[in-house]
Amino acid sequence: xxxxxxxxxxxxxxxxxxxxxxxxxxxxxxxxxxxxxxxxxxxxxxxxxxxxxxxxxxxxxxxxxxxxxxxxxxxxxxxxxxxxxxxxxxxxxxxxxxxxxxxxxxxxxxxxxxxxxxxxxxxxxxxxxxxxxxxxxxxxxxxxxxxxxxxxxxxxxxxxxxxxxxxxxxxxxxxxxxxxxxxxxxxxxxxxxxxxxxxxxxxxxxxxxxxxxxxxxxxxxxxxxxxxxxxxxxxxxxxxxxxxxxxxxxxxxxxxxxxxxxxxxxxxxxxxxxxxxxxxxxxxxxxxxxxxxxxxx
Length: 297
Fold this sequence. Notes:
Blueprint lengths: L1 H23 L13 E5 L5 H6 L17 E6 L1 H4 L7 E5 L5 E8 L4 E7 H4 L3 E2 L3 E5 L7 E9 L5 H4 L2 E3 L9 H28 L2 H20 L13 H25 L7 H28 L1
Antiparallel strand pairs: 1-2, 2-8, 3-7, 3-9, 4-5, 4-8, 6-7
Helix pairs in contact: 1-6, 1-7, 6-7, 7-8, 8-9
């Protein structure tokens, strides 16, 4: 009985780690004065010249964070730029999209632009699942920055986008990542003893617990951007595909663990069958997201 209580405590600790990582791994949305004051939804052929002439209407209300697109525009006025003119960068959520173009316009009407493909932009990652993209330079004082994003995956690319001249690894501090590393080190212990005990007991719940622990650690490393510290050119699918898959796989192995570990008198046959069926549906859903990503890329 004591061993089962210890096992339940370890599971609760892993789930707490998973929840804590999901909370702290993503930085909070930018403040109202930092984010884009207006947005627009246009076709993929709409140019910035059309925006300047006023032929495209802008949305400056509270409901402006739509990603209906297919091309989404963000507009930052002088207030959002904070009067900084050197080494300005666009900092936004590290997420999936196809193309991104930044336009800088000065008082004289001069416009400079810079274009990125998704694979190029993701190389400019920052701690906390963010990316920094250098703004194009114009001769005069910048009065507006416009960002055109084609097929953004999530609205967080808009709500977290800010203009900054900060050159550090902001978003999530190195201290937080160090604490996550400590938790990951502690959680590695079940991987070792589960393998050792399985050789002696040959019980399936040990393998289920091992799989749950492994994918919990995988999700922690990916969602906290810890994995990007060990990859010089991180592929974008790490975030858009493997992260949700790791989470769903951890839930699936947890369901299998419960179905194989809890005694027959404490779990009804119907509930045991539902746990097993749910463990199959979770990865299937994650794979459908992966297929959708590959087809849309």
